[in-house]
């Protein structure tokens, strides 16, 4: 949607305007009647329309077309061409929402000025629309586990400051959700939140995307920094930013100014920057892939977002939320999660974290039959649950290489750590589930060197 549709029944005129605009670097399409115009509009809406008021041998005149455009595509600026002396009609067109009008015979410079302004307006509207889309995404950040509450506590502390936050954590763990939480609770909540996915932007496009560009033909195109002005710029996977762009970003952080690509003027912005990484940036610095000074500027307040396997307790809550969301968004069945299925999910490894969990629930709801509770077999980590072989345990290479006694200890340690984690460190509930007396479980944990409160490995000396 970046071209101009020229609608005029006089072939000479539409071709003349088309040639002038093409020489100026615009892409154009031509229509000689209202039918042709409507076809073009339905195929792809243009960025701008130049529309003659009188269309001979057409079903609709310019004003009729204008009304349709304003109803269906209100963001497209329409410049009206009117015959000399038709000033009242031109004014009527402006009242119907036309952007501006030019009189025939027109002056080329005047035409170009109007087009340039209208194109800028169109670009601005589209940017605002895309920002609104981003901002309208409702924020849901769920969790009740101790590690999750600790995360919220940390986020609450940083929301009110203007400090730069670096979110670390594995893919899909909720780093962007955490960044949005900061935005929503900060004094910038009504200003934009703009995400730059550094990993998905072509390296040679990165500077244009961030800083925008300007040239004589197209005028100014604002980049993401300007779109985020007054609000928050979220640099997702910042380690993927090319080294050259890193130097320029560093300058932005130092004095909040930059130049658009092709521009000479300094543009000033007021931004709070939040960045995220799933990689170890110290390693990236050691390998020469990341600028140390930029790291220190971005990493003023480091916040670690925990992996899903570190907050297994939150799993049923997250599953309920995803079922509700998928029911509302896609009409998928509103099922519940059986206790057995919850236990299976809580013992999974989850390398893809919360995102992987959501995908799995979506798949189960699509493929499953019936509206009953989700069963353990449906979430057992295989696409063909009936082939799972019942209770067969798959032996990992590491376990298979150990003598029985050590393998049993390694299994017991892993099993009990997972269960303690599932029950949020609650020993009574863990003991009940695993079928042991509370005191026996304590002795077992001690002998295996597991810290009872956290379910973490210890040197065996820790007492509850
Ligand atoms: N605490 C949470 N409550 C509800 N949904 C969550 C939570 N954390 C993550 N999600 C959901 O999980 C998915 C992944 O989250 P998000 O994009 O924030 O992860 P990320 O760490 O930024 O991932 P990546 O590093 O791959 O960009 C999203 O659908 C998000 O809504």
Automatic annotation (TrEMBL):
<dbReference type="Pfam" id="PF00158">
    <property type="entry name" value="Sigma54_activat"/>
</dbReference>
<dbReference type="InterPro" id="IPR002197">
    <property type="entry name" value="HTH_Fis"/>
</dbReference>
<dbReference type="InterPro" id="IPR001789">
    <property type="entry name" value="Sig_transdc_resp-reg_receiver"/>
</dbReference>
<dbReference type="InterPro" id="IPR002078">
    <property type="entry name" value="Sigma_54_int"/>
</dbReference>
<dbReference type="InterPro" id="IPR011006">
    <property type="entry name" value="CheY-like_superfamily"/>
</dbReference>
<dbReference type="GO" id="GO:0006355">
    <property type="term" value="P:regulation of DNA-templated transcription"/>
</dbReference>
<keyword id="KW-0804">Transcription</keyword>
<keyword id="KW-0597">Phosphoprotein</keyword>
<dbReference type="GO" id="GO:0005524">
    <property type="term" value="F:ATP binding"/>
</dbReference>
<keyword id="KW-0805">Transcription regulation</keyword>
<keyword id="KW-0067">ATP-binding</keyword>
<keyword id="KW-0238">DNA-binding</keyword>
<dbReference type="GO" id="GO:0043565">
    <property type="term" value="F:sequence-specific DNA binding"/>
</dbReference>
<dbReference type="Pfam" id="PF02954">
    <property type="entry name" value="HTH_8"/>
</dbReference>
<dbReference type="InterPro" id="IPR009057">
    <property type="entry name" value="Homeodomain-like_sf"/>
</dbReference>
<feature type="domain" description="Response regulatory">
    <location>
        <begin position="3"/>
        <end position="119"/>
    </location>
</feature>
<dbReference type="InterPro" id="IPR003593">
    <property type="entry name" value="AAA+_ATPase"/>
</dbReference>
<feature type="domain" description="Sigma-54 factor interaction">
    <location>
        <begin position="141"/>
        <end position="366"/>
    </location>
</feature>
<comment type="function">
    <text>Required for activation of most nif operons, which are directly involved in nitrogen fixation.</text>
</comment>
<keyword id="KW-0902">Two-component regulatory system</keyword>
<dbReference type="InterPro" id="IPR025943">
    <property type="entry name" value="Sigma_54_int_dom_ATP-bd_2"/>
</dbReference>
<dbReference type="Pfam" id="PF25601">
    <property type="entry name" value="AAA_lid_14"/>
</dbReference>
<keyword id="KW-0010">Activator</keyword>
<dbReference type="GO" id="GO:0000160">
    <property type="term" value="P:phosphorelay signal transduction system"/>
</dbReference>
<dbReference type="Pfam" id="PF00072">
    <property type="entry name" value="Response_reg"/>
</dbReference>
<protein>
    <recommendedName>
        <fullName>Nif-specific regulatory protein</fullName>
    </recommendedName>
</protein>
<feature type="modified residue" description="4-aspartylphosphate">
    <location>
        <position position="52"/>
    </location>
</feature>
<dbReference type="InterPro" id="IPR027417">
    <property type="entry name" value="P-loop_NTPase"/>
</dbReference>
<keyword id="KW-0547">Nucleotide-binding</keyword>
<dbReference type="InterPro" id="IPR058031">
    <property type="entry name" value="AAA_lid_NorR"/>
</dbReference>
<comment type="subunit">
    <text>Interacts with sigma-54.</text>
</comment>
<dbReference type="InterPro" id="IPR025944">
    <property type="entry name" value="Sigma_54_int_dom_CS"/>
</dbReference>
